Amino acid sequence: MECTLVEVTHEAVGAVFIAHQVGRSTRTQYVAAGDVGEQFQKWHFDDRLGWHETTAPRRMARDEFITQFTRSPSTSTERAGEGVASEPDIFVVKPVRELRTP
């Protein structure tokens, strides 16, 4: 997880989480804002709500990475009162030019 923050901070890459739930998916992307890596641009896409963009401090991005990495796919869908998701959640680091943006 720390390696991901370092890569996103020092390379022209972004971290992407795609979460699948029954009948719904969300996509969250993080890209370092500036050269120091203390702020991250966060783009969140929800099938139902569309795109939302915010700036997140490094600590918040780190905490969200930990949540995503430690979350069990079955636990997240069970909490929502749904069945098992049809597709597994995905995490990938991609070049910034390949990220989807609003």
From TrEMBL:
Keyword line: Plasmid
Domain DUF8030: 1-102
Database matches in Pfam families: DUF8030
Name of the molecule in the record: DUF8030 domain-containing protein
Organism: Haloferax mediterranei (strain ATCC 33500 / DSM 1411 / JCM 8866 / NBRC 14739 / NCIMB 2177 / R-4)
